[in-house]
Amino acid sequence: MAVIWPMIVQLGDPNFEKHIEQHRVMVGMSKEQVLQSWGGPQTINTTFTKDGIRQEEWIFEDWESSAIVRHRYLYFEEGILAGGWYEGTRERHFRDLPAEKPHPRIQP
């Protein structure tokens, strides 16, 4: 069913126009369609498989405050969205650094 569901959804919206209008992404979208829906990512990592297939990881950052960021990851193969996942809140606590060994870039 997990393999069939994206195909069923695409039959109802073959060009993903409704998804783009609602700022949603779906497996099977092209990079251009994802750009229309979500805009550009902050980071793109590109690799190639041993068979020469181009794979890209797009990382989107959603900053809630100066200390809280959420990440969205999308994975493309040959320009087509193959999957992704969402990382929840990651709060950075600079005050949690050990006092006896302060971080070299953070001066008290």
Q: Nutshell version of this structure?
A:
The protein has 108 residues and is an alpha+beta fold. It is built from three helices and four strands, in the order H-H-H-E-E-E-E. 6% of the residues are buried.
Descriptive account of the structure:
The protein has 108 residues and is of the alpha+beta class. It has a domain of 65 residues: 2-Layer Sandwich (Beta-lactamase Inhibitory Protein, Chain:B, domain 1), CATH 3.30.1450.10. Helices cover 20% and strands 35% of the residues. Strands 1-2-3-4 form a four-stranded antiparallel beta sheet, with no helix packed on it. β1 and β2 form a beta hairpin. The longest helix is centred in the N-terminal third of the chain and has 9 residues. It starts with a helix and ends in a 17-residue tail after the last strand. The relative contact order is 0.13. The C terminus is likely disordered.
What separation lies between the terminal Cα atoms?
Answer: 56 Å
Q: How confident is the prediction overall: mean pLDDT?
A: 79
Report the helical percentage: 10-25%
- The sequence of SSEs as H and E is HHHEEEE
Largest sheet: 4 strands, antiparallel
Class of secondary structure makeup:
alpha+beta
User: Which second-level CATH architecture of one domain applies?
Assistant: 2-Layer Sandwich
Query: Number of DSSP strands?
Result: 4
- The oligomeric state is single chain
Silhouette: flat
DSSP helical segment count? 3
**CATH topology value of one domain:** Beta-lactamase Inhibitory Protein, Chain:B, domain 1
Strand order of the largest sheet: 1-2-3-4
